[in-house]
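Q: Hi! First time doing this. I have a protein sequence and I read that you can turn it into a structure. Is that right? Here it is:
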Amino acid sequence: MENFAVVVSAIIGIIFLGLFDVAYASPQILIATSKPVYEYGDSLSFSITVSNVTGDTAVLEIVDQSNQSSSPINIMITKPISNITAPVPFYRTSFLPGTYFLKIQYSGSNATTSFQITDTKNIVIPPQFKTVASSWAQNQTSNRLFGENIAYLVSSNIIKVNDYQEQNVTMIPQWLKNDAFWWSSGTISDNDFGHVIEYLLKSGIMKI
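A: Yes, that's right. Below is the predicted 3D structure, encoded as structure tokens:
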């Protein structure tokens, strides 16, 4: 009888340990982007799917094709499927064209997916440049400062003027202030304003 009790205790122990392992096993995790290819001006959108919500925080990293990683991004997982859209779109000043990887860790599990950023002919300018353009259009910022901002957009290849060399002088037509004001207020697009700048620089009407 004593041996029977030992056997029963052992069986119960094995069952308990099995249930313990199931309860605390690492959850399955899947990460997927909303589309395989993004353009400048698009916002990264992705979903995270987990088989078990553990209460832990997920850690996300964006890794480029040279294996350079972003700072870790903590994401609180509160439901089996989380849909997330990045608050800031892709701009050339932050992301070069190419393949990127999303790597996520959660409660001992890992998942990876990839996406591409492609450079189209459309001009997409980061919104902080609109603040300078608006100030310049209202005569609150100098030609030189506005020109330095345009020079940065050119050197970053956001506004494309092949082999453009910066000048020792700043020469900007005054009528461009109308375009700058319309662009900064959203009346004309990044693409339209950028092509105006391209034309002025290529033709020599504008020098920065």
